[in-house]
Specification:
Layout: H1 7-18, E1 21-23, H2 24-35, H3 40-49, E2 53-57, E3 64-68, H4 70-76, H5 82-86, E4 94-99, H6 106-118, E5 122-125, E6 128-131, H7 136-142, E7 152-157, H8 165-172, H9 175-190, H10 198-217, H11 233-249
Antiparallel strand pairs: 1-3, 2-3, 4-6, 4-7, 5-6
């Protein structure tokens, strides 16, 4: 499950990630330009205590640099790394969750559907959900549900009735809606203020963060082999990282 991260915290993570390492002095100067109302060193102490950022000595200098930890990167990306998901290998087998839970257990059914959605499963029918990934996480989620094999079954399968993987993806996930969310996000990127300071910039940061998380939250981030040809997520990710890296690498004077 994604950990809630405010835009200021997320953007500092992305700055450290974009530049590999960033000096504390540079980070503080950039931070004050964007978030002057929030105390940098208090936030920095919070990030460090959570294990999200670490300080490292700069060779030949008394100055220290910040580096994003693996845990920090995961948190900054909302618990999901788009590139890692798109480039993961797929073994060609689908994992199916089949269930027939009676009306008397509607809360269990609702909990199951919510959990499957959070794990990126798509549904061919309300009681038939599919995923390209091994069922490690789903098995952990199902451990607490007291259901028998007639109520819930996990299986591995390949299409064998003339259906293609493209057909399964199209039927299980609403990619037109997913693409619309990314198009909305791309419009937000197009509306980026020219000057990286002031009220308009702070408002844009908030809007950008919310729009990106809305788009990413509805995307199963399938392996590249299964992505539809018109999928918009990769373009949105590429543009986002390019723009934010340019912003974070900009001199503290302010214009991008």
């Amino acid at each position: 499950m994604a950990t809630p991260v405010g835009p200021s915290l997320q953007l500092l993570f992305i700055m450290a990630d974009a530049l590999a390492e960033v000096s504390i002095l540079t980070a503080e100067a950039v931070w004050n330009r964007w978030f002057s109302s929030q105390r940098f060193h208090r936030k920095l102490a919070q990030f460090e205590s959570n294990g999200w950022i670490e300080r490292r000595p700069v060779e030949g200098s008394l100055e220290r640099a910040l580096r994003l930890t693996a845990a920090g990167r995961e948190i900054a990306l909302g618990g999901r790394d788009p590139e890692a998901n798109w480039t993961r290998k797929w073994d060609g087998r689908w994992r199916l969750v089949l269930f027939d839970i009676p009306e008397s257990q509607r809360k269990v059914r609702a909990r199951l559907c919510r959990g499957l959605h959070q794990l990126g499963f798509g549904y061919l029918q309300n009681s038939v959900w599919i995923s390209p990934d091994p069922p490690v996480r789903i098995s952990e989620m199902l451990r607490g549900l007291k259901l028998n094999v007639e109520q819930l079954t996990l299986m591995e399968a390949r299409p064998c009735g003339g259906e293609s993987n493209v057909d399964l993806v199209k039927g299980a996930w609403d990619f037109p809606r997913i693409n619309r969310n990314y198009d909305v996000y791309l419009e937000v990127l197009d509306g980026q203020p020219r000057r990286t300071r002031g009220i308009s910039w702070n408002r844009w940061i908030e809007v950008e963060w919310k729009a990106w998380n809305r788009a990413l939250g509805g995307d199963p981030l399938l392996p590249a082999a299964l992505l539809p040809e018109d999928y918009r997520g990769c373009e949105a990710w590429k543009r986002r990282t390019g723009i934010l890296r340019k912003v974070f690498a900009a001199p503290t004077g302010g214009d991008v």
